[in-house]
Design brief:
The structure is a homodimer of 206-residue chains.
Chain A: H1 3-38, H2 41-48, H3 52-58, H4 62-83, H5 90-106, H6 118-126, H7 128-151, H8 160-169, H9 174-182, H10 187-200
Helix pairs in contact in A: 1-2, 1-4, 4-6, 4-7, 5-7, 5-10, 7-8, 9-10
Chain A binds a DNA duplex (18 and 18 nucleotides) through residues 16, 40-42, 50-54, 56-58, 60-62.
DNA sequence: GTCTATAATCAGATAGAC
DNA sequence: GTCTATCTGATTATAGAC
């Protein structure tokens, strides 16, 4: 093997990786725009600029395309968590992550999947990268939740799992879309409103 | 026209109404179970026990079937609102309605529609009964929201529209399904948890 | 690996007899 | 109005040449 051939292979692999990345980005965008059912594989292929058959060489099914997009957003979330200052207060960490989730959705970059589709669920559960990422996220957020509850800043009477789900649910909160459609508020205002209702609730503060 | 023929017509109309009601109930249940996309018209017809072509004599499209289910649940909501004691505190009225919404969903009776589907949106907006019901609900809830804010029991810094959307969003809160799937809580406990996070927030009470 | 062309299937909607 | 049988279009997935 000459050095040249090694470089060539590496280059090829880079190209392959770049193409797959382009595919996943497109899928991510389309899932955010129209959801899983409304997104067609033809559309993905057309947007990426390749033939549909080529797409199926990279990903074996539409479900796997969606899973790849979920892995991508999960990686982004993991990166964000890692960048949160370790010495911040636990409650502030949670708020920062919730705000990030909301901002990603407002930016139209949050893929949305139907939670009922069973074949999609099966594909996600079978996806090692997805499950590992989900576990990692849950563990780290769970740690912050328990810390905030011990500290007394987060309601200790709420089960940690309920808090975790409530935070995850901000990633697909329809209130964001409603308020955005209303056109009466900026994205920043919407984010603060939803963040406030999430942590402070609807009640007046005492 | 003999009296007999009049009775006959009335009887026929009753039968027709009963059949349509059976259809809408089935659609409501299937929409709650699997959502709009996963529900097929074949399935609806089979469950009701009539031919698909007969279904299309009653409702011109799948979208109209879904709209009829939404009108039905809206009517139920209107009836519930009317039954709320007029002399109750505004905040309690809102909590009661939120709890009802949550309970309907937990009971598997809340139809869920994709908010992105544009043809479905068009059908809903064109449906007079649906729009009238939605307006009526929004008006009455809006009145309670403003009253609660004036009273100082509901956060006055939140736009009323944001509060309204937040309450509506409880009708499709994925947290309910997550907690239910976890199997660690009863329906009543889940309802109280979600209701608490909605009104009190995640923060510890001061 | 990428393409064109096509298979295979499924679901919404309709024709036409009764 | 209800039925059986069918149409139509859309969509996932694949075959086979290059």
């Amino acid at each position: 093997m000459s050095t040249n051939s090694v470089v060539k292979v590496s280059f090829k692999e880079q190209m392959l990786q770049a193409r797959e990345d382009a595919i996943v980005r497109t899928v991510n965008r389309l899932l955010a725009e129209k959801g899983f059912e409304a997104m067609t594989v033809d559309e993905v292929a057309a947007d990426v600029g390749i033939a549909k058959a080529s797409l199926y060489k990279h990903f074996p099914s539409k479900e796997d395309l969606a899973a790849a997009a979920m892995v991508r957003v999960m990686r982004r979330a993991q990166d964000f968590l890692s960048a949160v200052p370790a010495d911040a207060a636990p409650l502030d960490k949670l708020k920062t992550v919730a705000r990030w989730t909301i901002e990603v959705q407002l930016a139209g970059e949050m893929p949305s999947l139907p939670s009922q589709n069973s074949t999609l669920r099966a594909t996600l559960i079978a996806n090692r990268d997805y499950m590992d990422g989900l576990m990692d996220l849950s563990d780290r957020l769970g740690g912050w939740i328990e810390a905030a509850q011990k500290e007394g800043t987060l309601n200790p009477r709420l089960p940690a799992i309920a808090v975790l789900y409530t935070l995850f649910a901000r990633a697909c909160d329809p209130v964001l879309g409603f308020l955005k459609a209303g056109g009466q508020h900026t994205d920043a205002q919407i984010a603060e409103l939803v963040l406030s209702t999430c942590f402070d609730g609807l009640n007046a503060r005492v």
